[in-house]
Write a structure and sequence with these properties.
Elements lengths: L2 E7 L5 E7 L4 H10 L35
Antiparallel strand pairs: 1-2
């Protein structure tokens, strides 16, 4: 199965690298960030190119690799 390799740039300039299965719903990614101490109201999850805010898309129906409705 495909995997998604993600890098998070945190407000304190720390970089977090994490791998997820490509079929992982976006809400699992958002839950991971909560476990790292980041409140979902305090950040955005953006793609690099084209730049878009994926944290506002329905997170339970979006997969990480394809970013399409499943």
């Amino acid at each position: 199965e495909l995997e998604a390799r993600l890098r998070f740039r945190c407000p304190n300039c720390e970089m977090i690298n994490r791998r997820f299965l490509g079929s992982t719903p976006l809400n699992i990614l958002l839950n991971y960030l909560v476990t790292q101490g980041y409140n979902t109201q305090e950040y955005k999850v953006l793609t690099t190119f084209p730049r878009r805010d994926v944290s506002i898309i329905a997170p339970s129906v979006i997969s990480l690799v394809r970013q399409t409705v499943t």
